[in-house]
Amino acid sequence: MVDDEIHAIGREPSDTMCARRYFQDLYVRWHTYQMAGISVPPAVVELVGDVADLMLNDIDHIVAEMDAAVVEIAPVMGADAAIAAEMSASNRANAVRLLTALARRDGTGAPADVPPEALDVVRTVVRRGIDLDVIFQAYRRGQNVAWQRFMVYAALVVAPGPELVELLEVTSQLMFSYVDQVIGRVIADAQHEREELLGGAMARRTETVRLILDGAPIDRRRASERLGYELDRRHTALVLWAEPRGEIQGVLESAATLLARAARARPPLTLPSGTATLWAWLGTNATPALDALRDAIRSADPTVRVAVGPTQPGITGFRRSHAAALVIQRLLSGHPAGERIAFHRDLEVTALAAQNQDHAAEFVATTLGPLAADTPGAARLRETLRVFLDEAENAPRAGIRLHTHRNTVLQRVARATELLGHHPGERRLAIGLALELTHHIGPRVLARP
Question: Which CATH class is domain 230-349?
Answer without folding.
Answer: alpha beta
